[in-house]
């Protein structure tokens, strides 16, 4: 089972790919999609879509998960995040039948045991659970955490 996790954003979108093999989490890949910030929003969304398609075609996940939108005090930021999520979900829907949406708190609670865990705590647990030599970037780590949370939900066990 291959799982794709997405931490969406118009400026940075993190992705993380893991597999679940005999109840073991196995790291496959992670990274950050960085559209050109000098381009228009529509061109950045197009870049996000094509980059997502490349990740989906490369790793062929059977399941995917994306972080839900949180309410932000800045409406423009919330709208941009919603647009990025929509583009990512559309790309995933073309390639993966199973798309789950989890809140940041749900992901943190599942991975760290605390729904209000810090970024550093999430990075530490992701590194530990996936046996990575070094910590992934914030965005990639958040995406990997989402994938781990989905793996735990699908497996219904403590990995």
Q: In which range does the helix fraction lie?
A: 40-55%
Mean pLDDT: 92
Structural Rg: 15 Å
The helix-strand sequence is EEEHEHEHHH
Determine the number of helices (DSSP H or I, runs of at least 4 residues): 5
Q: Ranges with pLDDT <50 over ≥5 residues?
A: none
Estimate the strand proportion.
15-25%
Secondary-structure content class: alpha/beta
Overview of the molecule:
This protein is an alpha/beta fold and 159 residues long. It is 49% helix and 22% strand. Strands 3-2-1-4-5 form a 5-stranded mixed sheet. Strand 1 and strand 2 form a beta hairpin. Helix 3 packs across helix 5 and helix 4 (119-129) packs across helix 5 (138-155). The longest helix is centred in the middle third of the chain and has 21 residues, at 75-95. The chain is globular. The two termini are 14 Å apart. The mean pLDDT is 92.
Structure summarized in a few sentences:
By secondary structure, the protein is α/β, with parallel strands linked by helices. Helix content is 49%, strand content 22%.
Blueprint (SSEs and pairs):
Elements: E1 2-7, E2 13-21, E3 24-33, H1 41-59, E4 63-67, H2 75-95, E5 98-102, H3 104-112, H4 119-129, H5 138-155
Parallel strand pairs: 1-4, 4-5
Antiparallel strand pairs: 1-2, 2-3
What descriptive keywords fit this protein?
single chain, alpha/beta, five-stranded mixed sheet, 5 helices, 5 strands, 49% helix, globular
């Amino acid at each position: 089972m291959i799982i794709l996790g997405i931490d969406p954003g118009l400026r940075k979108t993190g992705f993380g790919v893991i597999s679940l093999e005999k109840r073991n989490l196995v790291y496959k890949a992670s990274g950050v999609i960085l559209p050109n910030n000098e381009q228009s929003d529509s061109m950045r969304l197009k870049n996000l879509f094509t980059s997502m398609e490349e990740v989906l075609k490369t790793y062929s996940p059977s399941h995917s998960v994306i972080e839900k939108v949180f309410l932000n005090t800045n409406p423009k930021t919330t709208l941009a995040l919603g647009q990025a999520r929509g583009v990512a979900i559309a790309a995933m829907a073309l390639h993966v039948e199973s798309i789950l949406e989890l809140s940041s708190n749900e992901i943190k609670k599942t991975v760290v045991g605390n729904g209000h865990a810090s970024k550093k705590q999430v990075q530490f647990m992701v590194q530990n659970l996936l046996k990575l030599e070094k910590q992934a970037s914030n965005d990639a780590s958040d995406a990997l955490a989402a994938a781990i949370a989905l793996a735990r939900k699908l497996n219904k066990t403590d990995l």
